[in-house]
Amino acid sequence: MDCAKVGRFIYQLRKEKGLTQQQVADLLNISNKTISKWECGLGCPDVTLWSELSAVLGADIQKMLEGKLDPNLPDVGKIDKTQFYVCPACGNILTSTGNASISCCGRKLQPLKPVPYPTEHEITVEEMDMDYYISIQHDMTKAHYIAFVAYVLSDRVLLTRLYPEQSAEVRIPMMKTDGDLYVYCTKHGLQKYTDLFN
């Protein structure tokens, strides 16, 4: 491990958070001289402190160990290019509008790739008031269910979380422009439907 590189990274993160060496030391229950030593590259944090240090500085432990952050390209507002992630441990649903390093429960997540939708999962769309009422012929058991439905337009994402033992139904406001509908099945993965509202 390159202690000088790690130390510069700790310094950068501490400054970004607006923390003094003493404040970081107090949060970790160590001396401020230890923080100074790390930032000067004269030593690295003990392995028992990495988790707390990561939480205090708001950085990924792996990136801290490497002593670098790989910045993403600026978000150019391509919401219609939204990518979806689902944590296999806790089921959290996360999104990004470009390349991103997404982690949850200590696992680096990969964006879900849409797969062809199973023909047995028929989708029905009805106009109701000023909404589209969407119903999906799908099991909703704890072992196999629709976890979310997302409607992605050029300027917004409307995401509805669904749970086992409830109906696979959502309402989406009618929009002037059409978007794509994404359905995430816990067994079959992410499915994409286009031209559903024409």
Description:
There is one protein chain. The protein has 198 residues and is of the alpha+beta class. Among the domains are: 3-66, lambda repressor-like DNA-binding domains (434 Repressor (Amino-terminal Domain)), CATH 1.10.260.40; 123-193, Sandwich (Immunoglobulin-like). It is built from five helices and eleven strands, in the order αααααβββββββββββ. The strands form four sheets. Strands 8-7-10-11 form a four-stranded antiparallel sheet, with no helix packed on it. It has a three-stranded antiparallel sheet with strand order 5-6-9, with no helix packed on it. Strand 10 (180-185) and strand 11 form a beta hairpin. Helix 2 packs across helix 3. The relative contact order is 0.12. The mean pLDDT is 85.
Quick take:
With 198 residues, this protein is of the alpha+beta class. The protein has helices at 3-17, 21-28, 32-39, 50-57, 61-66, and strands at residues 83-86, 93-96, 102-104, 107-109, 123-128, 131-136, 146-152, 157-161, 169-173, 180-185, 189-193.
